[in-house]
Task: structure prediction
Amino acid sequence: MFDITRRTVAAALVALACMAAFTPAQDLVAQGTTLTGDWGGVLSTPNGEIELVFKVAADEEGALSTTLDVPTQGAASIPCTDTSVDGKKLHISGCQIPGSGGFDGTLNEEGVMVGDFNQAGQMLPLELKPVAESESE
Result:
């Protein structure tokens, strides 16, 4: 009986190792992530391009918060009032900029957050990528 249990456990471990080996890394990240971290992109507007960096953080209880940096305009740590994650979808709203602002996007297989930036009723496409700490400071 002991030999059968060892074989069963060994078979289960091999199966898990195979699943991990053949699952794309982005899928593993997307399944286990809270989408916290710095997400940056360039917003194309009729008046030019604007660099945006959303800094998504979780507190000890897991509650999410976001601040927005707009390096192009010299703005940093602009608070956003609502941040939520549903699977691979990220929702940020209430960023304290003129006309309010936010972002709704979905993490794709390449690890890019694809969605729309909204401000004052306008929606513009925006892709966000993870930003290294040294890049966002």
Q: What stands out?
A: Residues 1-32 form one domain. Confidence is low (pLDDT under 50) at residues 8-32.
